[in-house]
Amino acid sequence: MLTHQDVGLSASEDQEIVQLLGRRPNELELGLFGALWSEHCSYKSSKNLLAQLPHQGQFVVQGPGGNAGVVQLSADWDIAFKIESHNHPSFVEPLQGAATGVGGILRDIVAMGARPIAIADILKFGVNEQAPALLHGVVEGIGAYGNAIGIPNVTGSLGFSAVYDANPLVNVLAVGMRRHGLQVGADGARPGSVLILIGQGTGRDGIHGASLLASRDFGAETEEMRPTVQVGDPFMGKLLMEATLAVVGKGFADAVQDLGAAGLTSSTAELAYASSVGLIVDVSKVICREQNMSPYEIMLSETQERMLLSVPKQNLASVLEVLAWYELPYAEIGRVVAGDFLRIEAGDQVLAELPTSVLVGSCPRLPVMHDVRIWDAGQPSVLEKIGLQSRWGYQVLGHPDCRNRSSVYQRYDSMIGTRTVWGPEHDVAVMHIGNGKPGLCIAVAAPARWAAYDSYAGGIGAVVAALSLVAAQGAVPLGLTDGINAGNPAKFEPYRKMADLIRGIGKAAEIFEVPVTGGNVSLHNETEGQAIWPTAAIGVVARHPNPEHPIADAPPDAGVRILALNPPANPDLGGSVLAEILGRSDRYPVLDLRAIQHSLRFLVEIIPQAETVGLLGCRAVGIGGLFFAVAKSLMTKTPMALGANLVLAGDADARFVFNEMAGQWVLFVDPEFQSFWDHVSETHGVSVVDIGWVTGSPEVVITAGRSLTWPLIDLWRAYRKGGVRDVR
Amino acid sequence: MTQFRLTFLVGLKAGILDPAGQATRNVLQHMEYQVDDVRIGKWIQVIVSAKTKDQALAIGQEMGERILSNPVMEYFEVTVQAYEQ
Amino acid sequence: MTQFRLTFLVGLKAGILDPAGQATRNVLQHMEYQVDDVRIGKWIQVIVSAKTKDQALAIGQEMGERILSNPVMEYFEVTVQAYEQ
Amino acid sequence: MNNDLSVGIVIFPGSNCDNDTIAAIFALGAKPVVLDYRLRSLPVLDRVILPGGFSYGDYLRSGALAAAAPIMDAVEKAAANGLPVLGICNGFQILCERGLLPGALLPNPSGKFICQWQTVRVANESPLFTGLHQGRILRLPIAHHEGSYRTAQGQLADLFDRGQVFLQYSDPEGQSHGLTNPNGSVANIAGVQNRNVVGLMPHPERAMATYLGSRDGADLLASWLGMGENAVC
Ligand SMILES: Nc1ncnc2c1ncn2[C@@H]1O[C@H](COP(=O)(O)OP(=O)(O)O)[C@@H](O)[C@H]1O
Ligand SMILES: [Mg+2]
After folding, report:
1. Dist. CA A465–CA A622, nearest whole Å
2. Cβ–Cβ contact A143 with D under 8 A
3. How far apart are CA D100 and CA D93, in angstroms?
4. Per residue in D4-53, pLDDT tens?
5. Which of D54, D45, D50, D48 is closest to D13 using CA atoms?
6. What DSSP character marks residue B68?
7. What is the per-residue pLDDT across A480-535, written as a single tens digit (0 to 9) for each?
8. CA A427–ligand 2 middle distance (angstroms)
9. Is residue D89 annotated as part of the catalytic site, yes or no?
């Protein structure tokens, strides 16, 4: 006899179920509850927290709740986008785990009726012996799936820390486009329609993967769950995508739902609940890959590459025609009726019948614990005056978090689809979507170290970092998606940190008026009591004013002025790469959000008319600080012929050039427009400081009291290969 | 020390989806071969030095478990033969 | 018609660089296995219907040449066994 | 411009550069005609392209399963009758697997997918590419896992003797050597021809505009369409 523990439910949840149903559930029903009331499917620990995030905005077409958020890009096009995590599966089987993660998020986009056009991956790995092999497998898997079905990887982020040794993070952002006005989702099913399951034959893959594997910490006892991994089939994924888009594009289906975690169980229950209808599903109709699969197994299998369609009878023939064209296996597995229930049958036998209002709608949520945040503003600087050493420049560029990523991104196809104007060799992706303007600007940020000590400040910083990246292109942010990764929510510390992280994200999203239209929460990233840092992966999609001519992120010639936009008045190294190198990492500093807001607005206003004010280039300052931003601008030009001469105030030191306070930019301006920039503080209310000029000799020179010189070729070596080159 | 040839056959565990086998089967059927099932795995040959044939086999067993197969989804068989160049 | 199991071993012809084998050899050597050479090929199992074992083998030979191996770079061996489910 | 030039583009299950290729042909002013892999005969056409992608998931060997697709009988027959056929990336692999081009494409020696900009040099003038002179250097993207071109033993010299080597990976000055070989192809070979059949690993259809990084792909395709180098819109 199956018990509540077997399906991962607590005793109180078990009681709750009995009370709500007025009877004991049978085994199959218990299995359904186990899946849908799991952390992974129900978001029971985080839902009340996520409710604090702002969802409304002038561009929002579809907020959270659907398979993906949708925002309006232009009169013709909407953009669907969302981040998804596949952390646990990727640790167990890096290649297939990552590949199926990509497959899953792409199906979310497709289920919104949007054609995927871009992928970005946000990866965190440990620093132990196992890490390189995990990274290798994950990168292989991400490329093998997304690129195979024709979607380019256009940007990403990669970071390292020992806290990810046993819990690497694999988050993937997928972005798709659909015609404005197309309405598709899981909420349109109408009584009388038939349910069609299309795609891969159902097998015993990943049974209870989500409810058990992703909703528990790792430890010795999870070892035996390993055979629950799934294998991705991008070939089938591509056929499934094309067939679904064809069906949806012609308006043949009234509802679409992909099969992800908890397979048929969640897709049928959620479709029924979202559409306020009843569903009758006959498991004996489901095409199985293996013999003698039990109804329990069929309902809980997590076989990939499947999609559920609800099709009005009069469209059935047309849909079957599309499926035949793509040679896609399919079965009519049930029908939509009026009511509030999910009934599972096998032939003429009723196996389960549950009200969806209970199954989906009544999972007890954990209340938000208020005012537990331990955070005091205005901490003193982590490092008092510390001078500046040339060694630090090489150490920072050679740090794993800063180092050149070409060995990763060259393993992805970044150009397929011919929309990629700027790909992964830049800090942000720029894509054209045909017919000139506007285009799309996509950026991700996941600055984990910032949240290590103060996850509220880290959450704010992550959003600011992502917004700063698209602002450097003068792009208007349309919406945010957030991937939250944290430890075991049943414990005080991890819960508190997750709560603060979400609050920080919400605070920033509210202040900058960019809605969060969807995201993902991955909990239990914890092994033997060791939790990861609370880590937010933020993705932003923005409207690019001029995608065929992105403003440069490097200076064109010698003689160009270098300005700092919004440099912090009190630079603080907290959370920075340099502080970590010096063994002094501490909490991330408090940002001046109003000043940042002014700068963001300024860039969006000025960049579309950059020529008229002599603005030649712009780059956001991020990890590695101003120093890295300037050095990157120079190193990425071929041949490396330009340098920079930075002349700073006499008391400026490492804190000024290596702080990672988000919301600062480096600007390259034509000296002829000096007077505009000299007065920009008065005319536009932003802080701009002249910090030097571009030279014709390939080196970075900083003068602040004394002078230090970094030959670009040495910086390049550190950036390419890591390690330290000492002062000559 | 003598050299031995270890031959590994590595396949996907029963029940694990084999997309390559599935696609190959479909094509063979289209070509009008009377084919029911295709599974694709790896064939690995390793030349190893060991004292005895039994020791070589034991080493092979260990290599198979540790690195040549992923126990999460694969099984393997290993056989040993004498090897002259 | 009876079902037979065809087993194909497909490998790269001698003299053709096998990067996957080399990479695996390096990893094994790093792990301090006394390994001299590694070659990686494919192991394909096909369930085929035929009148006789000989006919099954002949079909296998043809499939091997037509599609399961690339004669420019690869060689293959095929064996046949009776098959019961 | 030649609006009447019709170019068949074969779509196999798993093709993924088909739309990019259709758009490129369209942009050049020719008429793209979509050809389903199940067809057993071809309509009247002036050219055929096998586009890039992961036909049949690249399972078994890249291009091997597509080479056995029904339409390939018709393509082979048409090629024998002189119809110009161009295979790009996966299309090149398919043509080799089918035996319409010599050699084979093996996995990159790194064992990894590689996507980057690459310069290639036109090694031999080809009657199929009007106006594309020997020594011309083109900047095109490559993106493949199995792009290491090899020939059967003793075949390489013949290939050169017969002028069948069409493109070679090179540096921006046109020198071909180990450092400019991205994937271990023998003699840096990036494209070969066999009478009216050509295969290349780089993706010209992705290099159709300066804002995408290069428009050399437009030049290459325009010349294959017989539109000369300057017929690009
Ligand atoms: N995992 C990744 N996948 C794809 N591209 C990546 C990845 N990591 C980094 N990149 C690309 O490399 C660029 C440079 O990375 P960088 O900003 O130095 O580090 P970070 O990984 O922290 O963003 C990024 O802007 C991004 O476009
Ligand atoms: Mg970055």
Report:
1. 7
2. yes
3. 10
4. 899 999 999 989 999 999 999 999 999 999 999 999 999 999 999 999 99
5. D54
6. I
7. 999 999 999 888 888 899 999 999 999 999 999 999 999 999 999 999 889 999 99
8. 5
9. yes
pLDDT tens per residue, range A189-226: 999 999 999 999 998 887 766 555 555 555 544 444 43
Q: Which residue has the tokens 């010299």?
A: D157
Q: Coil, helix or strand for A590? A: coil
CATH number, residue B78: 3.30.1280.10
Q: What is the mean pLDDT of chain A?
A: 91
CA max distance for chain C? 51
Question: D25 with D2: CB under 8 angstroms?
Answer: no
By DSSP bridging, strand B2-12 and strand B74-82 are antiparallel
Contact B23/D59, CB-based, under 8 Å?
Answer: yes
Q: Cα(A445) to centroid of ligand 2, in Å?
A: 7
D185 secondary structure, DSSP code: -
- Nearest CA-CA distance, residue A240 and chain D, Å: 11
Helix (H) or strand (E) holding D219: helix D216-224
Nearest CA to ligand 1 atom 6: A156
Strand locations in D37-179 (E) = 47-50, 85-88, 104-106, 114-122, 137-144, 148-150, 165-170
What are residue C74's phi and psi, to 5 degrees?
Answer: -125, 155
Residue having the nearest C-alpha atom to atom 16 of ligand 1: A402
**What proportion of chain A, given as a percentage, has pLDDT over 70?**
94
Domain span at residue B40?
Answer: 2-82
Active site residues of A: 40, 86
Structure token pair of residue A704: 């602040």
Provide the number of structural domains found in chain B: 1
Å from CA of A88 to ligand 2 middle: 24
Choice from A86, A139, A155 to test ligand 1 binding pocket (greatest atom count within 8 A of CB): A155
At A41-71, the pLDDT tens digits run 888 888 888 988 999 999 999 988 888 999 9
The Cα A19–Cα A33 span in angstroms is 14
Q: Are D85 and D101 in contact (CB under 8 A)?
A: no
- Output phi, psi for C22, to 5 deg: -65, -45
- Are A392 and A654 in contact by the 8 Å Cβ rule? The answer is yes
Q: Is the CB of A720 under 6 A from ligand 1?
A: no
> Helix/strand/coil (H, E, C) string of A222-266?
HHHHHHHCCCCCHHHHHHHHHHHHHHHHCCCCCEEEECCCCHHHH
Where residue D178 falls (left for φ over 0; alpha for ψ -120 to 50; beta otherwise) is alpha
Tell me if D146 sits within 8 A of D108, measured CB to CB: yes
Q: Please write the tens of the pLDDT for every residue from A591-635.
A: 999 999 999 999 999 999 999 999 999 999 999 999 999 999 999
How far is residue A55's CA from residue A62's CA, in Å, rounded to a whole number? 9
What token pair was written down for D227? 């539109």
Q: Is D177 a catalytic residue?
A: no
Q: What is the per-residue DSSP string for D65-90?
A: HHHTSTHHHHHHHHHHTT--EEEETH
Give the one of A227, A232, A304 whose C-beta lies nearest to B72's C-beta. A227
Q: Which two tokens stand for residue A587?
A: 């909490």
Beta bridge partners of residue A519, listed in sequence order:
A482
The C-alpha atoms of residue A186 and residue A65 are separated, in whole angstroms, by: 10
Report the CATH number of the D6-231 domain: 3.40.50.880
Amino acid sitting at position B13: K
**ipTM of this complex prediction, to 2 decimal places:** 0.90
Domains of chain A, CATH where assigned: 551-728 (3.90.650.10)
**How far, in Å, CA of A650 to CA of A207, rounded?**
64
- Domain ranges in chain D are 6-231
Distance CA A336, CA A353 (A): 14
pLDDT of residue A717: 94
What tokens does A691 get? Answer: 């910090």
Residues making up chain A, counted from first to last: 728
From the CA of D8, how many Å to the nearest CA of chain B?
23
> Using CA atoms, how far apart are residues A447 and A466, in angstroms rounded to an integer?
10
